[in-house]
Design goal:
The structure holds 2 protein chains of 2 kinds. By secondary structure, chain A is mainly α. Chain A has one domain (20-172). Chain A has helices spanning 20-53, 64-85, 89-94, 108-123, 130-134, 141-146, 156-172, and strands spanning 96-100, 148-152. Classes of the chains: A mainly alpha, B mainly alpha.
Chain lengths: 188, 200
């Protein structure tokens, strides 16, 4: 998976098209966070209603209203994140960002289009995501519709320097150096 | 009224001088003259140079026209610069230089404006710099912490897995050439071609 980490081979992956693993990991984090926040909000509403009115409110997950609220919330979460900074929380963790297909900043209107087209990738039996895996530019169906692409927005070189700095500190303290996790070479 | 005898004497003298000059071999005479001895007897300072107004002479010289007629390159071709430099005592020269005054005349901002810092940084072996100096310890104390370590590790692992998956997909699809690395606007600009490189 990784090769030697000679300084000459070390590259910054900033601005390269992000691959499937990074994108799905970011998506998993976002769905987990979004669902968690939604559940918290429902619990807070139930508690508030109980305190104010004394009635117990229970949220049935199969309730169509709850489902609509859930997907609306996810839509707002993704659209707002992409429009404001080009990245959701999960994407920030994985160091990836949404940009226009040509690499320039994604305008808010395209962020909204991307959000609206996002469910289409699911509705076609998940085939909309196939482009991330096999496409040369790793673009999903909603990327094609919105004219967007996802790129790495973290600097591997800076990360490696941080690692080397820690190594230098460990060596200075007489401790054994840790294995190098930042061993990245360009794809042949 | 002129004395006829004197007139006759003058005519005779002129005739004799004419005959003498005709019979004289000037080249032979010049060959016999010891010019060095002659020049040694002449006080050039008193006789010539004191009479010459050098400033007035130089004012009459068109220096630009003079320089236009000088082939400086040909002149320099004749100069053995190494031999010339061997005669220069650089230490003595530097001892006479007022470095502070020199630096005071330098426009450091203009100088730095001409430096391609990005290119400079690209040429630096940052790994060696961090490992061989105390810079690493300084950076470790000043940047991030456990969280940034975890993020760096997670991201690098994800990129590694991305590459792994991408390699297998290309192998399965028998794709020879990889796709573009990045969107067009984010691809690094090709290095500029210098005139020397462009020349055949």
């Amino acid at each position: 998976m990784s090769a030697s980490a000679s300084p000459a081979n070390l590259v910054t992956y900033q601005a390269h098209y992000a691959g499937a693993v990074s994108r799905f990991a970011a998506y998993a984090i976002d769905i987990t966070l979004g669902t968690g926040l939604f559940s918290l909000a429902l619990a807070a509403i139930s508690y508030g209603v109980h305190v104010v009115t004394g009635h117990q409110v229970s949220w049935n997950q199969s309730n169509i209203l709850v489902a609509i609220m859930y997907f609306a919330w996810l839509g707002v979460y993704f659209a707002y994140s992409w429009a404001v900074s080009g990245r959701t929380f999960g994407m920030a963790v994985l160091g990836i960002r949404v940009v226009k297909a040509d690499g320039t900043t994604l305008p808010p209107s395209r962020a909204v289009v991307r959000t609206l087209a996002f469910p289409l990738s699911f509705l076609l039996f998940g085939l909309g995501f196939l482009g991330i895996l096999v496409g040369r530019e790793h673009r999903a169906l909603h990327d094609v519709i919105a004219g967007s692409a996802v790129i790495y927005a973290w600097d591997a070189r800076a990360a490696r320097l941080r690692f080397l700095a820690r190594q230098a500190e460990l060596t200075a303290e007489g401790l054994p150096p840790a294995p190098d996790p930042i061993q990245i070479t360009p794809t042949p | 009224m002129t004395d006829p005898a004197e007139t006759l004497a003058q005519q005779v003298t002129e005739r004799v001088v004419d005959l003498l000059v005709s019979a004289l071999d000037v080249n032979e005479l010049a060959a016999r003259v010891d010019l060095n001895a002659l020049l040694g007897r002449i006080d050039l300072n008193a006789a010539v140079l004191n009479q010459v107004n050098v400033n007035a002479l130089l004012d009459r010289v068109d220096m630009n026209a003079l320089l236009d007629r000088v082939d400086v390159n040909a002149l320099l071709d004749h100069v053995d610069v190494n031999a010339l430099l061997d005669h220069v005592d650089v230490n003595a020269l530097l001892g006479r230089a007022d470095v502070d005054s020199l630096l005071g005349r330098l426009d450091v901002n203009a100088l730095l404006g001409r430096v391609d810092v990005n290119d400079l940084v690209r040429r630096m072996d940052m790994d060696a710099l961090v490992q061989d100096t105390d810079l690493g310890a300084v950076m470790a104390r000043s940047t991030g912490g456990v969280a940034s370590d975890v993020l760096d590790a997670a991201r690098s692992q994800a990129v590694g897995l991305d590459q792994f998956v991408d390699r297998w997909v290309r192998r399965i699809l028998r794709r020879k050439q990889p796709g573009p690395a990045a969107p067009p606007a984010l691809l690094p600009a090709p290095p500029a071609v210098t005139p020397a490189q462009a020349a055949p």
